[in-house]
Each structure stands twice: as structure tokens, then as C-alpha cells.
Amino acid sequence: MQPDDDHMMGLALAEAKVALGQGIFPVGAVLASGTQILGRSHKTMVSNHLNHAEMNLFHQVFTGDYTFSRNDGLTLYTTLEPCIMCFGTMLHLPITRLVFAMPDAYGGCGQVRLENSPPRHVARAMEVIGGVRRADACKLFAEFLASTTEAFWLTGGASHFQAAVKAGLQSDIAQV
């Protein structure tokens, strides 16, 4: 972990709270170069497979001509381990570090192994750190699950994820 990881994750959590306030699954994301914030975003649509916090952020920062390179030490902070779409997109961008709060037992790909991938991705160095402010993210997801009216969640969708949130809350209670 780096010294600013906790603070930057706090900014991603603030973005997630914006989504939660709109009744949207609370994922927030921040892109930084050191302590310089390049962009912030959150998931923006209910039950939409494309408007993930990370994708919204990527469109915000990497649209048009940009001069970022892998030498800039870009870090993506996100409240939930990225899905395959967001992780795959990240591999195409000059991001060299991923920091996430809560692992996604249902669909997270932050720890995916790339050795059988095409050469472009096998050689891609990506530092991945999980669990930064996990308890804070877990509380936001639990609040969402307790208040959502989306049929997907109410009928037990993403049961692995829901079980992880419940287990995370119980673990936090046990530690108090």
C-alpha cells in the first residue's frame, strides 16, 4: 500500500455514496497520478451493463488526445473489484496500478491471471491491491441491498456477492 491509498479510496467511496443516493449500485472510482486527481466518477444507471463507474471515468479522462503513458504511474481506485469489461479496458489504458476496496466474489477480475492471454496482455505489468477500506465499501453495498427495489437483487441475483457482503458485515461486527 502507498500512503495516499486510504485517502484516494475515501474519494472513491464518496463517489459511491452519490450513486447510492440515487438508488444506484454504489460503485465509485477515482483515477490519480500520485496525489493529483485526474478524474472521479460513479455508476450512473440502474441495471445498465455499460455505465460502470470505471467506464464512466475512462470516458471522462481518456477521451480525445491524451498524453498519459505508463510512466505516469496512474492508479485506479475503485470501491469494488472490477469486472472483466472494466479490467480489460484498463489493460488497454496507461494505468499501472489498481486499488480496490471490496473483492467481488461474483464477477471480479482484478486478480485474473494473464499468462495465457495474447502477448500484448501477458507482458502488461499491473500492481493490484485489494481490501483498502473494505469495511466502508461493504457497509455501502449492504445499505444498497437493504434498500433496493431492483428485481435482480430482490430475487437473489449475484448470490456470491450478496453472501460476501453479509459475511463482511458479520466480520466487522465480530471485530468490535
Descriptive report:
- The protein is an alpha/beta fold.
- The protein is 42% helix and 18% strand.
- It has a five-stranded mixed beta sheet with strand order 2-1-3-4-5.
- A hairpin with a 2-residue loop joins strand 1 and strand 2.
- Helix 1 (5-21) runs parallel beside helix 5 (134-147).
- It is globular.
Give the helix/strand layout.
Layout: H1 5-21, E1 28-33, E2 36-42, H2 53-61, E3 74-80, H3 84-92, E4 95-102, H4 119-122, E5 127-130, H5 134-147, H6 151-154, H7 159-175
Parallel strand pairs: 3-4, 4-5
Antiparallel strand pairs: 1-2, 1-3
Helix pairs in contact: 1-5, 5-7
Mean pLDDT: 91
Q: Between the first and last Cα atoms, what is the distance in angstroms?
A: 24 Å
Report the uncertain regions. Answer: none
Structural class: alpha/beta
By DSSP (H or I, 4+ residues per run), the number of helices equals 7
The helicity comes to 40-55%
Radius of gyration: 16 Å
Could you give the count of β-strands? Answer: 5
Strand content: 15-25%
What series of H and E elements makes up the topology? HEEHEHEHEHHH
What form results from the Cα inertia axes?
globular
